[in-house]
Specification:
The chain is an alpha+beta fold. About 35% of the residues lie in helices and about 20% in strands. The longest helix is centred in the last third of the chain and has 15 residues.
């Protein structure tokens, strides 16, 4: 197993990451025309995008953009990075055996590779990864990333689900930007594997990479995430969508992606012209 302690180069990366842990909202353009996508779905939320081409930031609902929420399954980005870097996950093809417990999500009830677990957002797989990483090592890496409030509490396999750990959309945007450019304190191989498993759609016009998440805050509001980037003509545009709703019957899986893709379409994406 690789040494989990930071080398001098990684300490330098740590300092860099702490200084640039999020994308500044001071230069953001507030676009209230995006409100209609949340209103049409009867939810609250925010959207933020950073164009790497010109550094422009577009935001709807600046207040929620800087509010921290539980990351839910978007934490699989960080969990994968840490698992790979420490050798807990050997590569994206590493299998963790099903524990035999039948869960309501049938996709989870089988042996699974990391790549498969990421795609179907398999909570048990990544809970086992977190247990194998251990509390001290996990804390070390979250500190080095400057990940949200960096609080993992006392339960190693659910802190990203139980509101101990929290992160803002602005901070998530900074994380995926640094991931894209190999600027996180991990080996390039580690970051490349995670970028690859985040790919959801690719054709001649664009590539769409993201991780979703869904959980509940302390007031039992649904919190939905879509975190990633879209790439057109070799230019990346990083984005984060947060959806918040008190409606227990909300179809979050559909709503969060419908809002995200609707906004991206309005902003001119999916045609290969950006």
């Amino acid at each position: 197993m690789k040494n989990v302690f930071l080398s001098l180069s990684k300490i330098a990366c740590f300092v860099f990451c702490m200084l640039f842990a999020s994308c500044s909202v001071n230069r953001a353009k507030v676009d209230d025309s995006l409100k209609k996508y949340f209103d049409d779905n009867k939810v609250d939320g925010c959207f933020t995008m950073l164009s790497n081409n010109d550094g422009k930031v577009t935001v709807y609902n600046l207040t929620l953009d800087t509010t921290r929420f539980l990351p839910a399954s978007t934490f699989k980005i960080a969990n994968s990075l840490i698992g790979l870097e420490t050798g807990i996950i050997t590569d994206e093809k590493m299998v963790i055996k099903w524990d035999g417990i039948k869960r309501s999500n049938e996709d989870w009830n089988k042996d699974m590779t990391m790549e498969q677990a990421f795609k179907v957002s398999c909570v048990p797989y990544y809970q086992e990864v977190a247990r194998r990483i251990g509390k001290d090592t996990m804390q070390l890496w979250l500190d080095s990333l400057g990940y949200g409030n960096k609080n993992i509490g006392n339960i190693i396999d659910s802190f990203w689900l139980n509101n101990d750990l929290k992160i803002s959309a602005d901070e998530q945007l900074g994380l995926v930007k640094r991931l894209y450019f190999d600027q996180l304190p991990f080996q390039k191989r580690t970051q490349q594997i995670v970028r690859d498993v985040m790919k959801q759609e690719e054709n001649n016009a664009y590539g769409l990479y993201y991780k979703t998440g869904w959980g509940f805050d302390e007031k039992n509001n649904n919190i939905g995430w879509v975190v990633g980037w879209i790439e057109e003509n070799r230019h990346p545009y990083f984005f984060v969508t947060v959806v918040k709703s008190a409606n227990a019957a909300i179809d979050m899986k559909t709503v969060r992606l419908n809002i995200t893709k609707g906004i991206l379409k309005q902003l001119g994406f999916f045609n290969g012209r950006m």
